[in-house]
Amino acid sequence: MFRRKLSDWSDLDTSSLVELEREGEEILGESPGAAPNGGSGYYGEEDDYDEDPIYIPCTEFYKPQHSGNFFKDGKTLIDFVLVWEEKVSSKKHKTQSSSKGSEKRGQQGRARGKTTYENYRRRYHRNLLKAGLLCEKEQTLSERRSLHYLKLSAPWEVLVYYAEELCLRAPLQAQPNPDNNASDRFLQRLYLPNPLYHHVPNKPLDYYTCAFRKSKLQRFLGSECQATYFTNTQRSRILYEILSRTLYGKRKHAEVGIERMVKEGIYTAAFPLHEGPYELPEYEVAPESLNPRQILYQYWSRWSLWYKYQPLDHIREYFGEKVAIYFAWLGFYTAWLLPAAVIGTCVFISGVLTMGSNTAAQEICESGKKYQMCPLCDTCKNWYISEICPMAKVGYLFDHPGTVFFSIFMSFWAVTFLEYWKRKNATLAHHWDCMDFQEDEERPRPEFAAMAPQMEQNPITGVKEPYFPERDRLSRIVTGSMVIVIMLCVVMIFLVSVIMYRGIVSMMMYHTGNSILMTQAGNIANISSSMVNLVLILLMSQVYTALAEKLTRWEMHRTQSLHEDAFTFKVFIFQFVNFYSSPFYVAFFKGRFVGYPGEYGKLMGMRNEDCGPGGCLIELAQQLFIIMVGKQIVSNVQEFLVPKVKSWRQRRQLAKVRGTQILEEPQRWEEDYELIECEGLFEEYLEMVIQFGFITIFVAAFPLAPLFALLNNWVEIRLDAQKFVCEYRRPVAERAQHIGVWFLILEALSQLSVIVNAFLIAFTSDFLPRLLYQYEYDSHLEGYLNFSLSYSPHSYVSANHTLCRYKAFRDEDGKYTLFYWKLLAVRLGFIIAFEHVVFFSLRCIDWMVPDIPESVEIKVKRERYLAKQALADNQEVLLTVSPSSSSPASCISPCGLNDRI
């Protein structure tokens, strides 16, 4: 026998109340959405414990959409599911909590006493009923454990109340929702077919909207159809808001909200349900009959769709704006990589085709035994420059005038990409009704609430909340910064270790006596050291990310936003140094402190590294290729295998719990519980931002970087789509109007790339020395090789009984020549001119390209006008589309709208 508790709503049908009273139902006197206990905004009482309430399905009727997503009556839609596990005691036949234990509750050391997790859940369930939710409980038993599922649903009155409180948007007027792809419009103008386009069924409609008002309900489209007025994402968002506000213990101990309960193990999971399976049925069905998850799988996440447009409106409708904004940005970024990859590949191919015209390389190859070079190490022998003929030719691929052009192009590309993303983002933000979205006053994080040492009144809400002194937090932040500095020093230690490893391997190759190993000693050392460096980078990334998470938690940031920003800053600073320190060393420090014969600089008894025979740019290209592409391969393998392994382990563990019921077809909530928890978007953004740095900061040395980034992103989009559709539990839909702090990081990287590329061309490339030699001596670079090689000083010759050459602009006494000082002036002048021209041009682009398109501004004004008219008290005519209108929206029946408000 089941019963339920309902709120005493004034607008509830009295006949329903009489019917419920006849069934022995208990009616509680809290109005839906009200803030009991003095308007605190938290739901539930503190000190009374009742027996575990029993539940029956509600009597409110919903039109069935997908089987398995309803209460037992087949009509009440499940909006959220809470899950907990219990061990079964064979002796006493009682259940005990199987959670892993709670975290500490703060410095005051508050103890739970005799209060058990069972009591917390019982009180929480009661308070959810007081808040107006409808509940139904399921249980799966086995010999050792039992699984409990609490299914939650919000009735119409609760949904309406929270729609107004959360400032959800309601539809005023339907309008066409055309595909908004610039490439599609461009090809249509040329009357060319578009292979990227594909039709996705059940595309969500577009509306002019305004903030929802319960008092103006009849003035919104679709208000007659209560069952389908709110989308499932909106319903789950409302449920999550209630779950986050509801008490389960003492308010003075901040025992509030589902997040903290899951963190402490009171519940093992809390999630909204997927809307059915993602697999297609065995029989043929019309595309319009597929559920939203099947549509996303069929028209988005399959590998065969790697070149198709993403159905962003469907993604937003199913996962919310935050996830949709990420995929919109990733798709936009990938599309912009296409021209960069094409031009970069053309620059590389042009280097291959013009390799034969490299006069300096020809002189090296034809020199024979004319130029005897000084030993590359203290125990090495002299060698002839003609031995590096292959490396000299290959080095031209990464150091020719085309790479200079490409670095300038990529500087403009980066800033232009960000400017046009602003426009795209503004268009999406308006289209998805989150342009004016601002995060409400956030509640304290669960860990913060559990560990805060004292309570203080919130000046905004007037509610006493956990409080941590700012002075103590500042001291912790400073201490955490010292830890970051120590970790950065560890990165530098590993960098020095790799440098020494490279020198040792080179010496070993030279002393083998094998002509091939001696010739390729530098390449072998560089490639092997880059691989070792990649392994160290990946290991340090894992260690530091875990450390940064603990440090950020220890700093006691009050809200989740502050916590995420601090964590993002820590991780990005470390990853920037971790990934880019080695390329920066090769680009700007290697070969700068070598000295000259007789006066070599040394580190720990070993001679400082010099650039290889082919120059530092080819070594930089090798490092970038190994680190960037290697990181992408490892990340993609992890993203493909790790979710599948976790999901397999989850299913295996739950199969033991289900026991004899394993042969029965699992329910929707059981299937979703077998999936893994959504891990968020932090790692996805971080990976793309690191990649963005590789293709902009060092692009002068590696013009193929955009191509490899493009290939990776095609795979990345499908991997992420597969995870969200097939592997993850459905996340709670979150609103967002942009990509957050990541855009600021991208802007900083784009500005840094201009400066780094200027220095890279000026000091690392041979472009300016050759240009100056052409201007002063020979336009065809004849004799440049002999001009660029200096003679060893006399003291060094007498000590080694030989005369050798080395690459530098020095005289026989080791002093710099006049050409060196002229070249230094040209280099500094080039850097100043390059930066000023590029930055001025970028400011012009920023000024000429408005952040918000004119068409969007018109729509915003139109929407505000309609909102003003719809919400006016003297408005008598509903703003709906006239049936006689010829617009596409005129065929839409307001009651048939199954879309967002």
Strand and helix map with partners:
Elements: E1 5-7, H1 14-22, E2 26-28, H2 36-39, E3 80-88, E4 95-97, H3 117-130, E5 134-141, E6 145-153, H4 156-165, E7 169-175, H5 182-189, E8 206-211, H6 226-229, H7 232-245, H8 258-263, E9 269-271, H9 292-301, H10 312-319, H11 321-353, H12 359-366, E10 372-373, E11 383-384, H13 389-395, H14 401-431, H15 446-451, E12 454-457, E13 464-467, H16 470-510, H17 515-519, H18 521-554, H19 560-588, E14 595-596, E15 599-600, E16 602-603, E17 606-607, H20 616-658, H21 668-673, H22 682-697, H23 705-727, H24 741-764, H25 767-776, H26 784-788, E18 789-791, H27 794-800, E19 805-807, H28 818-848, H29 854-870
Parallel strand pairs: 1-2
Antiparallel strand pairs: 3-4, 3-6, 3-9, 5-6, 7-8, 10-11, 12-13, 14-15, 16-17, 18-19
Helix pairs in contact: 9-23, 10-11, 11-14, 11-23, 12-13, 14-24, 14-28, 16-18, 16-19, 18-19, 18-20, 19-20, 19-22, 19-24, 20-23, 22-23, 22-24, 24-28
Family: Belongs to the anoctamin family.
Keywords: Cell membrane, Glycoprotein, Membrane, Transmembrane, Transmembrane helix
Main location: membrane
